[in-house]
Structure prediction request, 180 residues.
Amino acid sequence: ENGGSVAIYPGYKGLMEELCKLVLFSPEKALPAIMNIQRWARAQSNDGTFLENLYELGGVQKLLYYLQNSVVNTESLELVVDAIATIACSGPNGLDSKISCNIIERLVEHDGIRLMLSVTEDYIGSNNDKALGTVWYALRMVIYHDEKFFEKAQMLAVIESGLDTMKKLSTATTGSIHST
Prediction:
């Protein structure tokens, strides 16, 4: 272990322990678990074990729970949505694409799109373009991965939110230029 973070994927039991921390621990205490999950998502093995385990354990639902109930800092936000983006872009031609598709379907079913859109509102005008960019990258990867899960209303909400974000960013940038 390195500061509470495990670089090598420890398998089903290790993932289950880290996912439980997202639900049971305070956001600060759960941060090492978020870091591990994000690392494992990025370094997933070619056999798809991490994604299969994540799906079986309801991992994306627990990541969404953490986002909904615990977002208190940009570091954890960036790690969670980066893990989601990484999971989403593990296909479409890769070995993991079917399981990745199943995970993204769960994300959409559990209102993950709306949740990620609502999180962006907190970062507009906050001078934290990296956090905002990471959320939009995750949204793009989720939508790009497989559009068949999205209803027309969801797609319109994403487009509308994107336009609103650009408008608010434009206003925030213009306002800060005029105030200097």
About this structure: DSSP finds nine helices and no strands in the chain.
